[in-house]
Amino acid sequence: MKRTSLITRSGLALAALALPAVLAGCGGASTTSSGSASTISVLDYYNNEPDKSFIGDALNQCAQKSGVTLDRQTVPGSSLIQKVLQQASSKTLPDVLMLDNPDLQQIAATGALAPLSDFNISTDGFAQGVLQAGTYNGKVYGLAPTVNTIALFYNKDLLAKAGVQPPTTWDELKADAAKLTSGGQYGVAFDANATYEGSWQFLPFMWSNGGDEKNIATPQTAEALQLWTDLVKSGSASSSVLNWTQADVKDQFVAGKAAMMVNGPWQIPTLDKQAALNYGVVQLPVKTAGQTEIAPLGGETWTVPQTGNKAKQAKAAEIVSCMNSDQMQLSMAKQRNTVPAKTTLAAQFASDNPKLAVFTNLIKTARARTGELGADWPKAATKIYTAIQTALTGKASPSDALQQAQNNG
Q1: Residue 190 lies in a domain
Q2: 278, 351: one domain
Q3: What are the Cα distances from residue 238, in Å, to 5, 139, 157, 181, 266?
Q4: Do residues 245 and 318 share a domain?
Q5: Residues 363, 126: Cα–Cα separation, whole Å
Q6: What single DSSP character describes residue 396?
Q7: Which end of the chain has fewer CB atoms surrounding its CB within 10 Å, N or C?
Q8: 356-381 confidence digits (pLDDT tens)
Q9: Domain tally for the chain?
Q10: What's the rounded Cα separation, in Å, for the pair 261 and 177?
Protein backbone atom coordinates (compact mmCIF):
# COMPACT_ATOMS: atom_id res chain seq x y z
CA MET A 1 0.00 0.00 0.00
CA LYS A 2 1.23 3.43 -0.79
CA ARG A 3 3.18 4.78 2.12
CA THR A 4 1.80 8.31 1.95
CA SER A 5 -1.74 7.55 3.03
CA LEU A 6 -2.90 4.27 1.55
CA ILE A 7 -4.69 5.95 -1.28
CA THR A 8 -8.46 5.75 -1.49
CA ARG A 9 -8.99 3.52 -4.48
CA SER A 10 -12.66 2.65 -4.08
CA GLY A 11 -13.24 2.81 -7.82
CA LEU A 12 -10.03 1.14 -8.88
CA ALA A 13 -11.07 -2.39 -8.00
CA LEU A 14 -14.04 -2.02 -10.32
CA ALA A 15 -11.82 -0.61 -13.04
CA ALA A 16 -9.44 -3.53 -12.69
CA LEU A 17 -12.29 -5.95 -13.28
CA ALA A 18 -12.47 -4.64 -16.82
CA LEU A 19 -8.84 -5.50 -17.51
CA PRO A 20 -9.31 -9.10 -18.68
CA ALA A 21 -11.76 -8.00 -21.36
CA VAL A 22 -9.49 -5.20 -22.49
CA LEU A 23 -6.39 -7.33 -22.64
CA ALA A 24 -8.08 -10.32 -24.21
CA GLY A 25 -8.40 -8.44 -27.47
CA CYS A 26 -4.86 -7.12 -27.61
CA GLY A 27 -2.73 -9.43 -25.52
CA GLY A 28 -1.50 -6.40 -23.62
CA ALA A 29 1.33 -6.14 -26.15
CA SER A 30 2.81 -3.08 -27.78
CA THR A 31 2.72 -2.71 -31.52
CA THR A 32 6.40 -3.62 -31.87
CA SER A 33 7.97 -6.98 -31.13
CA SER A 34 11.58 -5.98 -31.80
CA GLY A 35 13.74 -2.92 -32.23
CA SER A 36 16.00 -0.61 -30.30
CA ALA A 37 16.01 -0.85 -26.54
CA SER A 38 17.95 2.36 -25.98
CA THR A 39 14.96 4.07 -24.36
CA ILE A 40 12.88 2.37 -21.67
CA SER A 41 9.50 3.76 -20.60
CA VAL A 42 8.50 3.73 -16.92
CA LEU A 43 5.15 4.38 -15.26
CA ASP A 44 4.73 4.94 -11.51
CA TYR A 45 2.67 6.96 -9.04
CA TYR A 46 5.48 8.68 -7.17
CA ASN A 47 4.33 12.05 -8.45
CA ASN A 48 4.97 14.02 -5.25
CA GLU A 49 8.21 15.10 -3.63
CA PRO A 50 10.40 13.88 -2.08
CA ASP A 51 9.57 10.39 -3.36
CA LYS A 52 9.43 11.57 -6.96
CA SER A 53 13.09 12.53 -6.82
CA PHE A 54 14.20 9.64 -4.62
CA ILE A 55 12.70 7.08 -6.98
CA GLY A 56 13.77 9.03 -10.04
CA ASP A 57 17.39 9.07 -8.89
CA ALA A 58 17.32 5.32 -8.25
CA LEU A 59 15.77 4.63 -11.65
CA ASN A 60 18.35 6.81 -13.38
CA GLN A 61 21.20 5.01 -11.64
CA CYS A 62 19.80 1.68 -12.81
CA ALA A 63 19.27 3.02 -16.32
CA GLN A 64 22.85 4.23 -16.50
CA LYS A 65 24.05 0.84 -15.34
CA SER A 66 22.00 -0.82 -18.12
CA GLY A 67 23.08 1.70 -20.75
CA VAL A 68 19.59 3.02 -21.50
CA THR A 69 17.69 6.29 -21.29
CA LEU A 70 14.47 6.46 -19.31
CA ASP A 71 11.18 7.96 -20.43
CA ARG A 72 9.42 8.21 -17.09
CA GLN A 73 5.79 9.17 -16.53
CA THR A 74 4.28 9.71 -13.09
CA VAL A 75 0.56 9.90 -12.34
CA PRO A 76 -1.49 10.30 -9.14
CA GLY A 77 -2.05 7.01 -7.36
CA SER A 78 -5.79 7.16 -7.92
CA SER A 79 -5.19 7.33 -11.68
CA LEU A 80 -2.68 4.53 -12.13
CA ILE A 81 -4.99 1.59 -12.83
CA GLN A 82 -7.10 3.63 -15.24
CA LYS A 83 -3.88 4.61 -17.01
CA VAL A 84 -2.88 0.96 -17.28
CA LEU A 85 -6.30 0.19 -18.77
CA GLN A 86 -5.86 2.88 -21.38
CA GLN A 87 -2.35 1.75 -22.27
CA ALA A 88 -3.42 -1.88 -22.51
CA SER A 89 -6.24 -0.93 -24.86
CA SER A 90 -3.93 1.11 -27.10
CA LYS A 91 -1.09 -1.43 -26.90
CA THR A 92 1.23 1.10 -25.28
CA LEU A 93 2.01 -0.52 -21.93
CA PRO A 94 5.24 0.81 -20.41
CA ASP A 95 8.41 -1.27 -20.34
CA VAL A 96 8.59 -0.97 -16.53
CA LEU A 97 5.43 -0.67 -14.45
CA MET A 98 5.12 0.06 -10.75
CA LEU A 99 2.04 -1.29 -8.97
CA ASP A 100 0.81 -0.96 -5.41
CA ASN A 101 1.26 -4.47 -4.03
CA PRO A 102 -2.48 -5.24 -3.51
CA ASP A 103 -3.09 -4.45 -7.19
CA LEU A 104 -0.44 -6.75 -8.64
CA GLN A 105 -2.44 -9.97 -8.66
CA GLN A 106 -5.37 -8.31 -10.42
CA ILE A 107 -3.08 -7.14 -13.20
CA ALA A 108 -1.08 -10.37 -13.39
CA ALA A 109 -4.32 -12.33 -13.76
CA THR A 110 -4.96 -10.53 -17.06
CA GLY A 111 -1.72 -11.71 -18.64
CA ALA A 112 -0.34 -8.18 -18.81
CA LEU A 113 2.81 -9.01 -16.83
CA ALA A 114 5.78 -11.27 -17.47
CA PRO A 115 6.98 -13.65 -14.73
CA LEU A 116 10.29 -12.42 -13.35
CA SER A 117 11.65 -15.95 -13.63
CA ASP A 118 11.67 -15.40 -17.41
CA PHE A 119 14.57 -13.02 -16.81
CA ASN A 120 16.32 -14.96 -14.04
CA ILE A 121 15.65 -12.23 -11.47
CA SER A 122 16.54 -13.58 -8.05
CA THR A 123 13.96 -13.63 -5.27
CA ASP A 124 16.37 -14.94 -2.63
CA GLY A 125 16.28 -13.26 0.78
CA PHE A 126 12.98 -11.43 0.36
CA ALA A 127 10.47 -11.40 3.22
CA GLN A 128 7.73 -13.97 2.79
CA GLY A 129 5.04 -11.31 2.70
CA VAL A 130 6.83 -9.51 -0.12
CA LEU A 131 6.90 -12.68 -2.19
CA GLN A 132 3.24 -13.37 -1.40
CA ALA A 133 2.31 -9.91 -2.62
CA GLY A 134 4.24 -10.36 -5.86
CA THR A 135 3.07 -13.88 -6.65
CA TYR A 136 0.19 -15.01 -8.85
CA ASN A 137 -0.51 -18.68 -9.61
CA GLY A 138 2.84 -19.73 -8.22
CA LYS A 139 4.95 -17.28 -10.22
CA VAL A 140 6.52 -14.04 -9.02
CA TYR A 141 5.56 -11.09 -11.22
CA GLY A 142 6.80 -8.18 -9.11
CA LEU A 143 9.19 -7.31 -6.32
CA ALA A 144 9.16 -4.40 -3.87
CA PRO A 145 12.56 -2.88 -3.05
CA THR A 146 11.26 -1.37 0.19
CA VAL A 147 8.13 -1.94 2.23
CA ASN A 148 6.31 -0.51 5.23
CA THR A 149 3.71 -1.29 7.85
CA ILE A 150 2.12 0.35 10.88
CA ALA A 151 2.89 0.52 14.59
CA LEU A 152 2.02 2.56 17.70
CA PHE A 153 3.58 6.01 18.06
CA TYR A 154 3.41 7.56 21.53
CA ASN A 155 4.19 10.94 23.05
CA LYS A 156 6.80 10.19 25.70
CA ASP A 157 6.12 13.36 27.66
CA LEU A 158 2.37 12.84 27.82
CA LEU A 159 2.73 9.21 28.88
CA ALA A 160 5.28 10.13 31.54
CA LYS A 161 2.99 12.84 32.89
CA ALA A 162 0.14 10.32 33.14
CA GLY A 163 2.42 7.72 34.72
CA VAL A 164 1.84 5.04 32.09
CA GLN A 165 4.07 2.89 29.92
CA PRO A 166 3.40 2.12 26.24
CA PRO A 167 0.69 -0.56 26.18
CA THR A 168 1.43 -4.10 25.05
CA THR A 169 -2.04 -5.64 25.43
CA TRP A 170 -5.56 -4.50 24.56
CA ASP A 171 -6.50 -4.11 28.23
CA GLU A 172 -3.46 -1.93 28.77
CA LEU A 173 -4.32 0.09 25.68
CA LYS A 174 -7.83 0.81 26.96
CA ALA A 175 -6.59 1.65 30.45
CA ASP A 176 -3.76 3.86 29.22
CA ALA A 177 -5.92 5.62 26.66
CA ALA A 178 -8.47 6.44 29.37
CA LYS A 179 -5.78 7.94 31.61
CA LEU A 180 -4.41 9.95 28.71
CA THR A 181 -7.79 11.42 27.76
CA SER A 182 -8.45 14.84 29.19
CA GLY A 183 -10.06 17.98 27.83
CA GLY A 184 -9.15 18.27 24.16
CA GLN A 185 -6.61 15.46 24.37
CA TYR A 186 -7.56 11.93 23.39
CA GLY A 187 -5.67 8.85 24.47
CA VAL A 188 -5.30 7.32 21.03
CA ALA A 189 -5.98 8.14 17.39
CA PHE A 190 -6.40 5.81 14.44
CA ASP A 191 -7.92 5.81 10.97
CA ALA A 192 -11.30 4.07 10.72
CA ASN A 193 -12.54 5.73 7.57
CA ALA A 194 -14.60 4.06 4.87
CA THR A 195 -11.72 3.26 2.53
CA TYR A 196 -9.04 0.59 2.14
CA GLU A 197 -7.01 2.77 4.49
CA GLY A 198 -9.43 2.09 7.34
CA SER A 199 -9.27 -1.63 6.63
CA TRP A 200 -5.48 -1.52 6.55
CA GLN A 201 -5.29 0.02 10.02
CA PHE A 202 -7.65 -2.59 11.41
CA LEU A 203 -5.81 -5.60 10.00
CA PRO A 204 -3.12 -6.00 12.70
CA PHE A 205 -5.79 -6.08 15.39
CA MET A 206 -7.83 -8.62 13.41
CA TRP A 207 -4.95 -10.80 12.23
CA SER A 208 -3.05 -10.86 15.51
CA ASN A 209 -6.18 -12.14 17.25
CA GLY A 210 -6.73 -14.93 14.73
CA GLY A 211 -9.23 -13.17 12.50
CA ASP A 212 -9.26 -13.90 8.79
CA GLU A 213 -10.41 -12.02 5.69
CA LYS A 214 -11.94 -15.12 4.11
CA ASN A 215 -14.75 -14.80 6.66
CA ILE A 216 -14.82 -11.69 8.82
CA ALA A 217 -17.88 -12.80 10.81
CA THR A 218 -15.91 -14.65 13.49
CA PRO A 219 -15.53 -14.14 17.25
CA GLN A 220 -11.84 -13.29 16.79
CA THR A 221 -12.55 -10.41 14.43
CA ALA A 222 -15.52 -9.29 16.52
CA GLU A 223 -13.24 -8.99 19.55
CA ALA A 224 -10.88 -6.76 17.59
CA LEU A 225 -13.73 -4.57 16.40
CA GLN A 226 -15.11 -4.45 19.94
CA LEU A 227 -11.79 -2.97 21.04
CA TRP A 228 -12.08 -0.12 18.55
CA THR A 229 -15.73 0.36 19.43
CA ASP A 230 -14.94 0.54 23.14
CA LEU A 231 -12.21 3.14 22.56
CA VAL A 232 -14.57 5.40 20.64
CA LYS A 233 -17.61 4.81 22.86
CA SER A 234 -15.61 5.56 26.01
CA GLY A 235 -14.25 8.78 24.54
CA SER A 236 -10.65 7.59 24.61
CA ALA A 237 -10.64 7.96 20.84
CA SER A 238 -12.46 10.70 18.96
CA SER A 239 -15.55 9.78 16.95
CA SER A 240 -13.82 11.67 14.13
CA VAL A 241 -11.71 8.55 13.50
CA LEU A 242 -14.60 7.55 11.25
CA ASN A 243 -13.46 10.19 8.77
CA TRP A 244 -9.76 10.68 9.48
CA THR A 245 -7.05 9.69 7.04
CA GLN A 246 -3.66 8.62 8.31
CA ALA A 247 -2.44 12.15 7.56
CA ASP A 248 -5.21 13.51 9.79
CA VAL A 249 -4.19 11.10 12.54
CA LYS A 250 -0.63 12.37 12.28
CA ASP A 251 -1.84 15.98 12.54
CA GLN A 252 -3.74 15.16 15.73
CA PHE A 253 -0.63 13.58 17.22
CA VAL A 254 1.62 16.49 16.24
CA ALA A 255 -0.86 18.97 17.72
CA GLY A 256 -0.87 17.14 21.05
CA LYS A 257 -4.52 16.20 20.64
CA ALA A 258 -3.70 12.48 20.69
CA ALA A 259 -1.19 10.92 23.06
CA MET A 260 -0.81 7.78 20.92
CA MET A 261 -1.52 6.99 17.29
CA VAL A 262 -1.56 4.10 14.84
CA ASN A 263 0.56 5.10 11.86
CA GLY A 264 3.48 4.30 9.61
CA PRO A 265 7.13 5.27 9.20
CA TRP A 266 6.38 7.67 6.35
CA GLN A 267 5.25 10.13 9.05
CA ILE A 268 8.68 10.22 10.71
CA PRO A 269 10.12 13.13 8.67
CA THR A 270 7.20 15.35 9.71
CA LEU A 271 7.41 14.25 13.33
CA ASP A 272 11.14 14.94 13.43
CA LYS A 273 10.56 18.52 12.34
CA GLN A 274 8.62 19.16 15.56
CA ALA A 275 11.33 20.21 17.99
CA ALA A 276 9.04 19.95 21.01
CA LEU A 277 7.71 16.49 20.13
CA ASN A 278 9.39 13.70 22.06
CA TYR A 279 8.01 10.45 20.65
CA GLY A 280 8.67 6.73 20.58
CA VAL A 281 7.44 3.77 18.53
CA VAL A 282 6.38 0.30 19.70
CA GLN A 283 4.51 -2.60 18.16
CA LEU A 284 0.75 -2.44 18.32
CA PRO A 285 -0.80 -4.07 21.38
CA VAL A 286 -2.14 -7.62 21.08
CA LYS A 287 -5.08 -9.07 22.97
CA THR A 288 -3.05 -11.38 25.17
CA ALA A 289 0.55 -11.02 26.25
CA GLY A 290 2.75 -13.29 24.19
CA GLN A 291 0.72 -13.15 20.99
CA THR A 292 2.66 -12.32 17.84
CA GLU A 293 1.61 -9.15 16.09
CA ILE A 294 0.84 -9.78 12.43
CA ALA A 295 1.14 -6.53 10.55
CA PRO A 296 -0.06 -5.70 7.02
CA LEU A 297 2.55 -5.25 4.32
CA GLY A 298 2.64 -1.97 2.44
CA GLY A 299 4.84 -1.01 -0.47
CA GLU A 300 5.03 -0.89 -4.24
CA THR A 301 6.23 -3.58 -6.63
CA TRP A 302 8.15 -3.21 -9.89
CA THR A 303 7.09 -5.34 -12.83
CA VAL A 304 7.90 -6.08 -16.48
CA PRO A 305 4.79 -5.81 -18.69
CA GLN A 306 4.21 -8.08 -21.67
CA THR A 307 4.92 -5.49 -24.36
CA GLY A 308 5.98 -7.95 -27.05
CA ASN A 309 9.33 -6.19 -27.47
CA LYS A 310 11.81 -8.79 -26.23
CA ALA A 311 14.82 -6.49 -26.36
CA LYS A 312 13.09 -3.85 -24.28
CA GLN A 313 11.71 -6.44 -21.87
CA ALA A 314 15.23 -7.68 -21.23
CA LYS A 315 16.41 -4.16 -20.44
CA ALA A 316 13.32 -3.51 -18.34
CA ALA A 317 14.12 -6.62 -16.34
CA GLU A 318 17.60 -5.27 -15.70
CA ILE A 319 16.03 -2.11 -14.29
CA VAL A 320 13.68 -4.11 -12.04
CA SER A 321 16.55 -6.29 -10.85
CA CYS A 322 18.73 -3.25 -10.14
CA MET A 323 15.94 -1.50 -8.21
CA ASN A 324 15.73 -4.56 -5.97
CA SER A 325 19.47 -4.91 -5.39
CA ASP A 326 20.84 -4.77 -1.86
CA GLN A 327 22.46 -1.40 -2.48
CA MET A 328 19.29 0.18 -3.81
CA GLN A 329 17.11 -1.30 -1.08
CA LEU A 330 19.30 0.11 1.67
CA SER A 331 19.64 3.49 0.00
CA MET A 332 15.94 3.97 -0.79
CA ALA A 333 14.81 2.65 2.59
CA LYS A 334 16.97 5.17 4.42
CA GLN A 335 15.89 8.06 2.19
CA ARG A 336 12.19 7.20 2.26
CA ASN A 337 11.78 5.94 5.85
CA THR A 338 10.77 2.54 4.60
CA VAL A 339 12.25 -0.93 5.22
CA PRO A 340 14.35 -3.10 2.89
CA ALA A 341 12.29 -5.96 1.48
CA LYS A 342 15.04 -8.48 2.05
CA THR A 343 15.11 -9.96 5.54
CA THR A 344 18.82 -10.58 4.97
CA LEU A 345 19.31 -6.80 5.21
CA ALA A 346 17.09 -6.30 8.28
CA ALA A 347 19.70 -6.51 11.04
CA GLN A 348 22.09 -4.11 9.35
CA PHE A 349 19.32 -1.66 8.49
CA ALA A 350 17.77 -1.67 11.99
CA SER A 351 21.16 -1.04 13.53
CA ASP A 352 21.89 1.86 11.20
CA ASN A 353 18.35 3.31 11.43
CA PRO A 354 17.09 2.81 15.00
CA LYS A 355 13.89 4.83 14.50
CA LEU A 356 12.82 2.22 11.96
CA ALA A 357 13.85 -0.80 14.03
CA VAL A 358 10.29 -1.63 15.16
CA PHE A 359 9.00 -1.54 11.59
CA THR A 360 11.96 -3.57 10.37
CA ASN A 361 11.16 -6.29 12.90
CA LEU A 362 7.48 -6.32 11.97
CA ILE A 363 8.24 -6.86 8.29
CA LYS A 364 9.65 -10.31 9.07
CA THR A 365 6.13 -11.63 9.76
CA ALA A 366 4.05 -9.03 7.89
CA ARG A 367 1.32 -10.42 5.65
CA ALA A 368 0.36 -9.44 2.15
CA ARG A 369 -3.28 -8.45 1.92
CA THR A 370 -3.65 -10.51 -1.25
CA GLY A 371 -1.89 -13.52 0.29
CA GLU A 372 -5.12 -15.48 0.80
CA LEU A 373 -7.69 -13.95 -1.52
CA GLY A 374 -5.54 -12.71 -4.37
CA ALA A 375 -7.47 -10.50 -6.76
CA ASP A 376 -10.56 -10.77 -4.51
CA TRP A 377 -8.88 -8.83 -1.69
CA PRO A 378 -10.70 -5.53 -2.51
CA LYS A 379 -14.03 -7.22 -1.79
CA ALA A 380 -12.84 -8.24 1.66
CA ALA A 381 -11.36 -4.80 2.33
CA THR A 382 -14.73 -3.24 1.52
CA LYS A 383 -16.51 -5.62 3.88
CA ILE A 384 -14.07 -4.78 6.66
CA TYR A 385 -14.36 -1.00 6.46
CA THR A 386 -18.14 -1.27 6.05
CA ALA A 387 -18.38 -3.26 9.28
CA ILE A 388 -16.09 -0.80 11.07
CA GLN A 389 -18.29 2.11 10.11
CA THR A 390 -21.46 0.29 11.17
CA ALA A 391 -20.07 -0.70 14.57
CA LEU A 392 -18.38 2.60 15.43
CA THR A 393 -21.50 4.60 14.60
CA GLY A 394 -23.52 2.36 16.93
CA LYS A 395 -25.82 1.03 14.21
CA ALA A 396 -25.02 -2.57 15.18
CA SER A 397 -22.86 -4.51 17.58
CA PRO A 398 -19.41 -5.49 16.27
CA SER A 399 -20.47 -9.10 15.73
CA ASP A 400 -23.69 -8.08 13.95
CA ALA A 401 -21.89 -5.47 11.86
CA LEU A 402 -19.38 -8.04 10.69
CA GLN A 403 -22.09 -10.59 9.91
CA GLN A 404 -24.03 -8.02 7.89
CA ALA A 405 -20.95 -6.99 5.95
CA GLN A 406 -19.98 -10.61 5.29
CA ASN A 407 -23.46 -11.48 4.02
CA ASN A 408 -23.88 -8.37 1.92
CA GLY A 409 -20.39 -8.19 0.43
Answers
A1: yes
A2: no
A3: 19, 44, 21, 10, 23
A4: no
A5: 10
A6: S
A7: C
A8: 999 999 999 999 999 999 989 999 99
A9: 2
A10: 10
